[in-house]
Task: structure prediction
Amino acid sequence: MSALIPFITFFSVLLLSVATVEAGTTPFVAVFIDAKTEQAMGHFPYDRSITAKAIAKLREAGARGAVIKYYLDQSLPGTGDDDLALELKRFPVLLQARFDAEEKAPHSLPARFNMASRVQGKTSLLLAGASGWIPLEKLSQNCAGVGFVDVVAESESQVPLVVSYKTMLVPSLWLAALELLEGAKGKVVIGKNATIGKLVLPVNDAGEAKYQLPASDKIDSLSFTDLVGGRIDQKKLRGKIVILGVDVEKIPTFETKIGKIGIHRLFYHALVGLLNAH
Result:
């Protein structure tokens, strides 16, 4: 990997912005594969036809879009990959990627995700890499966006908004999710700010923005098994950006000033916090 500065994949011990958005008013909803889900459906991961069914349920409920917060870079037996690829044509969904120097044959990343024309300033300090876990091509070809989830190790209070992958500049998953929310492509002036629709976030010379954690790790999440089973009131999903994540004991956690938090819960906190930072 041609990283210019050290980084930690997934999430590091982030300091995210204080979540002042009141419960029930945030445009984001977390739907987690939780203990209830694994009790009903067995241990994660599941056949991707199940994820396809979950996306279909969100579409039918009138959700605005979704972020799949688990990796889809390896093919699985059966028709699940094809089922999911079809659903991605019907509904805006973001997929995640990460850098990994050990990955010798990464999938290609579509050129349409190159945001170089929307980035101004010196890019030499951006988080960078030449290989990684990239979504299956049949999925990335159909999805609304792909975002990287890597963070800089020596900058725990800062989150990248744009990174460098091979010859492209691409968004982090934080930026991609805000673009989906705002319905507008972000413009980044490195060392100054990022503008996404009505949102304006400060950005440092490495393309990062600062945040603080909320006062407590409280999320009114919904259970994935209830989504797939059609047991969630559609009003809770209508018009929302839905984060499909995993919140079980085996998921990695990070020690923060408010205790250990699972990486997908941190992602949710980050998005809520970003809305309060502009």
The first helix runs from residue 35 to 41. Confidence is low (pLDDT under 50) at residues 1-24.
